[in-house]
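Quick one:
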Amino acid sequence: MKVDISIEEIQEFLPHRYPMLLVDRVTEMVLGDSIKAYKNITTNEPFFMGHFPGKQVMPGVLIVEAMAQASGILGFKTMDKKPEDGSIYYFVGADDLRFKRPAIPGDQLILNSKVLTNKKGIWKFECYATVEEDIVAKATILCADRPK
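Output:
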């Protein structure tokens, strides 16, 4: 379902703040099922000062983190919880992780996540990130809902 969740509402569901908040907007969401969000990649991101001078590439670990953050939004919204309620969503694992192409300044990184399972507060998501429909990365991501 099409939605328009702005950065202000995203900040209600994620405890992250600049420079670690890696989701700019949510454009689609079906509670308990899937989410589509994006991160606009700009040359003034702090990590580009060292990764890599002369050939800027978004670090893969941050692409994975962005997918996990989108998954966290989906989990929090599905459970109707917020960090201020005393709950936190930890990124606890990634399986079958693959990178297919780099993400660079000027790209809009589209973050897709689909719930696979939710057992005892451990959520498993099938995730992938794209730029202009080309897959950048994909992984199965695990998150744990725990008391703060």
